[in-house]
Specification:
The chain is of the alpha+beta class. Helix content is 36%, strand content 21%. The chain folds into two domains: 101 residues, Roll (Ubiquitin-like (UB roll)), CATH 3.10.20.70; 332 residues, 2-Layer Sandwich (Creatine Kinase, Chain A, domain 2), CATH 3.30.590.10.
Length: 448
């Protein structure tokens, strides 16, 4: 038993923790939990806790159902919203097969496997996400709680108190918050998590989503990470600020470059741009995700800054990849911002594919295309074609077709997870395609 496990056992006893929730995610990124008593914790560290993998979406067929949950002691945290006496803690788990091998379709393992590839190249992958969400009266309708907009200081009501309570809870669980504010749409909020390594951040995002929903529930409202819940308003994004480090040195920084981007950063960005379309089915995995990424190109300019075209730029917020402003004398802050993902994705799989795309660019020496200096929405189709600017998928169906043909996605996810993800999402797309919408009834029933 290592020192971290001994620390957890001692803390459980000293803080009177009665139950430990063992957390893991299914293929789609839904949080799963198995609770054990404190008396079972040492056994869980030594041998794992058995469970039926066939009951978890995408995990295993019935004939190979036995799985083991092995808690990662480094992720131990007491849940602040549970009682202090006979309290409750949580740990994220790795999933093993009965013979002790990592389970290939465990999303956390997929990310760890990709991070190991980066480590072999000398890199540590860091992520800083901007987490957006809406607060509604309840889960039955999209009734906002205010009419505020970007950075608005709404009256001291449930929403300011909400952000304060959520941030306090996150920080009590060891999750550092950089800042928070009201977003552009009514009742929309953003909380930015401080940069850390990608595995810790994926765990943090899973915790963040639960904390926000628990905090909302305690205050009698509902929090939603749905990418586009309100028609005509901005959607929920999860802009990701990305960097690679070699030890303590930011591998993306080059003081001699105009944008302070090193050749590694340029090749990484080129890889992300080249493979962005084929990883979209994972970074934006729901039918609703593409309502956020779709622009009206034959009418008024779209509201919002969600990326639609595959391009990069500095101050151009229509770009898929943006180069944030450089901070003088702070080379460690050099990073790129990937603007496509939404906060309803599986962060383990999304981070794994984003990293794999960037590493591919480094390994193959991809050349970064020319910067898109103009707003890509304002270019004509001919101008975009001349500049080699492609469009992101316009629907989940299109994204799945691109994913299915992708060697990079298949290799990164592994055969089992790749096949199940495609099958699950095709069912979702088929169900949506067969659904008769309110739009169709209102548009066609009176005239056809």
């Amino acid at each position: 038993m290592d020192k971290q496990q001994e620390y957890v056992l001692r803390t459980v006893e000293e803080r009177d923790v009665r139950f430990i929730r063992l957390w893991f995610t299914d293929v789609l990124g839904f949080l799963k939990s198995v609770a054990i008593t404190a008396a079972e914790l040492e056994h869980a560290f030594e041998e794992g806790i058995g469970f039926d993998g066939s009951s978890i979406d995408g995990f295993a067929r019935v004939q190979e159902a036995d799985m083991l949950l092995v808690p990662d002691a480094a992720t131990f945290q007491v849940l602040p919203w549970r009682p202090e006496s006979q309290g409750v803690a949580r740990m994220f788990c790795d999933i093993l097969t009965p013979d002790g091998a990592p389970f290939a379709a465990d999303p956390r393992h997929v990310l760890k496997r990709t991070l190991a590839r980066a480590a072999e190249m000398g890199f540590t992958f860091y992520v800083h996400p901007e987490m957006e969400f809406f607060l509604f009266e309840d889960a039955t309708a999209t009734v906002p709680l205010d009419n505020g907009s970007y950075f608005d200081m709404t009256p001291l009501d449930i929403q300011q108190d909400f952000r304060r309570q959520a941030i306090n809870t996150l920080e009590r669980m060891g999750i550092s918050v950089e800042f928070s504010h009201h977003e552009v749409a009514p009742s929309q909020h953003e909380i930015d998590l401080r940069s850390t390594d990608a595995l810790t951040m994926a765990d943090n995002i899973m915790t963040f989503r639960l904390v926000v929903k628990e905090t909302a529930l305690a205050r009698g409202v509902y929090a939603s990470f749905m990418p586009k819940p309100l028609e005509g308003e901005w959607g929920n994004a999860m802009h990701l600020h990305l960097s690679l480090f070699e030890g303590d040195r930011n591998a993306f920084h080059d003081a001699s470059d105009h944008y302070r981007l090193s050749p590694i950063a340029r090749s990484f960005t080129a890889g992300l741009l080249r493979h962005a379309r084929e990883i979209s089915a994972v970074t934006n995995q729901w039918v609703n995700s593409y309502k956020r990424l779709t622009a009206r190109l034959h009418g008024p300019l779209p509201s919002g800054e969600a990326p639609v075209f595959v391009s990069w730029g500095h101050s151009n917020r229509s770009a898929l990849v943006r180069i944030p402003m450089y901070k003088p004398r702070k080379g460690t802050s050099t990073r790129i911002e990937y603007r496509a993902p939404d906060p309803a994705c599986n962060p383990y799989l999304a981070f794994a594919l984003i990293l794999a795309a960037g590493l591919k660019g480094i390994e193959e020496g991809y050349e970064l295309p020319s910067e898109a200096e103009e707003n890509t929405f304002e270019l004509t189709p001919v101008e975009r074609a001349a500049a080699g600017i492609e469009r992101l998928p316009q629907s989940l169906g299109e994204a799945l077709a691109l994913m299915e043909a992708s060697e990079l996605v298949a290799e990164t996810l592994g055969e089992h997870l790749f096949a199940h993800f495609l099958a699950n999402k095709r069912r979702e797309w088929d169900e949506y395609s067969a659904h008769v919408t309110t739009f169709e009834l209102q548009r066609y029933l009176p005239v056809l």
